[in-house]
Amino acid sequence: MQSVIKEKLAICYTCCGPTYRESAKRQLNTTCFDDDNIYYCILTDDKSYFNDVNRKNLVINELKDFYHEFPDLEKNEAFLESDDKEDYAEKFKHIEYSFPFSTYRFNLLQAIRLGISNVTLLCTDTHMNVKGDEHWGFNDTYFDNKPFLYNAVSQWEELVGDENPNSLCGKKLLTVSNILKDKYNLSVNEKVRLVDAAARLFLFENINQALEFFNVWNDVIETLYKENLINLYIGHYVVHDEYILAPIYDAFKFPKTQDIRRIFTVKHDVQNERFWQYPVYDN
Known about the structure:
globular
């Protein structure tokens, strides 16, 4: 089979709960296509849900598959599990669950173990436009600029350590920056770029750089939990990772990302995926 791109690329979805699994399966069956150089990585709570998906280069892991290697994972970032969407919704609300967004890093690790250093981490309501040309979508020219990070939706800059009393943003960034300095002697600039989490394409220089990035990201997360600092990053339904990753991006000297929406199609599907938070009322 002839490939549409010259290098291997991993397109990764992370999903737990019936509605998110349904969205991920729909992406695999409709927007994804078979190609020798494209691998699809799924991180989920129930790999059997995808047994009937017939897609080339499909690799599926449950988060549990990594518990033995990363023992803090089960204690701190376990997925909320259920086979029924109503039951999942009730559990989500009852225990005030916050989805651990940085579990996405284990899809990055899976790609690394496949020998792939070009990795896209996607929300399940987003897909990557790979069959592109010079005017639209992803194409071979993007491989010529490494290392680089592309994202969709939005990006913004924040000051590290800004003591604005109405915002914890600076404190969040400073907390991670201090971990990077103390544990790795990595420096972070006074102002850093943050990127939205809907879609992020990492083009690392090589596998070694990708693995180093994963190891630092993983260690920062584990440190935040051990030192009871993770609460700084908890939102109304997720443990956000934008303020965790921004100092890491800066420390790794990623060029300032471009907001290349043509690479991605983002259609937020909150009324289906998070229906318990966005009820639809009859007129």
